[in-house]
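ARCHIVE CARD
CATEGORY: sequence design from structure
SOURCE FIELD: tokenized fold
FIELD CONTENT:
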């Protein structure tokens, strides 16, 4: 085996040494020999299929990658022993692998060997090669510099150079007569230079991220964030994380409310049993009515929570509509939900979970085309979802001169009309209305 390896190694090395791969020019034998020697020796010393009643002669093949290490996948390093030759036989066919797929650039070494004392004559070796559709593979460091050790391209010269590279953006290079260039990516609104990890012009939406430099790329975190058009960076997984978080919180609240419902039903049953035993009194009847009202409120809460969970789940799995949560801009207090120019339903909202539940309801209604045209009907339903999720917190995050909300029945038109921002501006009421208007309407109820 050692003699054969010694004999084959120079042949194989000579075959690849003059070939320029996808990463540069000719390959020095000082680079290829040590790796090829190990691969070749390992192959020759392995248990190749061998029948001792036939000459030890083989059709051999060995695939090595661009780094000259052997490809260990099935059928990529193997051999076929010649068949038995009987007296009078003139030709015997030896068939190697059929439809062998090589998925990365490299080299295949095919050779015929005879390690026996018997003469064996080989003739008419045929190799059929079919090029696949994949022409190149590119891998990059986080900020966009190509990683040559993990990148490769087919050994072809008859196809146009691919200019669509990092993040699917076009690389502007080789602009100058000497073949050099600025090496910047075209992001639509701006150009990005991966060599300095900075965008070369001012951010047109810099006011949305005031704590960041106007030239920063993806908030200095391209592993987490993306910038599809040079206008605004975002976390592509943010919406999924928010939805997962909301689902978890909803599940906790349903569990809590289910326990509350069980306790309330137990209290109502005790009161009813006492009435059945001693007869009804006004005090007992009031207690029973209060217990039943509490049960009704809890059931409505569970129903709203389950509906929110189902809707958020459907929004996350549908393929026909895109949704995204967008943070409020600095100084903005009131959320909104609307479709952008691309048809994405954008739910602009603060960081409070209850407000996200509110805008998610609007997003789902727009998705289904069931959103009421009446503002008060639409908002009462959305605030009912928010109240189910965070009843106590809603009175803080949604201040109203129309009073506080202690039950679903108190989510009324007057309460909606009294909702205001930190500057005292009414959100849903006509522009001419003031706090005094709301207070006057309260006295008329």
């Amino acid at each position: 085996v050692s003699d054969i390896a010694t004999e084959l190694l120079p042949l194989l090395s000579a075959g690849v040494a003059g070939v320029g791969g996808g990463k540069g020019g000719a390959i020095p034998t000082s680079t290829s020999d040590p790796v090829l020697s190990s691969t070749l020796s390992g192959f020759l010393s392995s248990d190749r299929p061998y029948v001792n009643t036939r000459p030890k002669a083989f059709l051999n093949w060995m695939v090595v990658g661009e780094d000259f290490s052997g490809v260990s996948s099935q059928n990529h390093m193997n051999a076929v022993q010649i068949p038995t030759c009987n007296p009078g036989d003139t030709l015997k066919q030896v068939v190697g692998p059929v439809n062998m797929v090589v998925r990365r650039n490299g080299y295949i070494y095919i050779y015929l060997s005879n390690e026996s004392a018997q003469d064996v004559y080989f003739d008419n070796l045929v190799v059929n090669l079919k090029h696949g559709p994949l022409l190149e593979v590119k891998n990059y460091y986080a900020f966009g510099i190509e990683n040559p050790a993990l990148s490769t391209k087919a050994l072809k010269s008859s196809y146009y150079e691919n200019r669509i590279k990092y993040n699917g953006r076009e690389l502007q290079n080789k602009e100058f007569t000497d073949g050099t260039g600025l090496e910047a990516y075209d992001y639509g609104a701006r150009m990005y230079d991966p060599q300095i990890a900075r965008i070369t012009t001012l951010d047109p939406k810099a006011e949305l991220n005031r704590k960041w430099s106007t030239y920063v790329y993806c908030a200095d975190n391209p592993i987490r964030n993306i910038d599809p058009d040079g206008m605004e960076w975002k976390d592509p997984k943010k919406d999924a994380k928010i939805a997962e978080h909301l689902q978890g919180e909803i599940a906790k609240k349903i569990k809590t409310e289910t326990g509350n419902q069980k306790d309330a039903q137990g209290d109502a049953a005790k009161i009813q049993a006492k009435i059945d035993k001693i007869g009804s009194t006004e005090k007992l009847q009031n207690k029973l009515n209060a217990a039943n009202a509490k049960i009704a409120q809890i059931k409505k809460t569970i129903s709203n929570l389950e509906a929110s969970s189902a809707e958020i789940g459907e929004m996350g799995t549908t393929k026909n509509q895109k949704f995204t949560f967008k943070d409020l801009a600095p100084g903005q207090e009131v959320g909104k939900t609307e479709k952008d120019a691309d048809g994405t339903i954008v739910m602009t909202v603060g960081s409070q979970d209850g407000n996200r539940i509110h805008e998610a309801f609007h997003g789902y209604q727009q998705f289904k085309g069931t959103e009421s045209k009446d503002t008060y009907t639409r908002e009462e339903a959305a605030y009912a979802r928010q109240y189910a999720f965070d009843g106590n917190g809603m009175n803080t995050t949604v201040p109203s001169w129309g009073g506080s909300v202690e039950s679903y029945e108190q989510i009324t038109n007057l309460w909606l009309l009294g909702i205001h921002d930190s500057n005292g501006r009414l959100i849903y009421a006509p522009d001419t209305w003031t706090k005094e208007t709301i207070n006057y309407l309260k006295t008329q109820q």
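CARD ANNOTATION: The CA atoms of residues 261 and 298 lie 6 Å apart. Residues 20-26 have pLDDT under 50 and may be disordered.
SHELF: design records, drawer C
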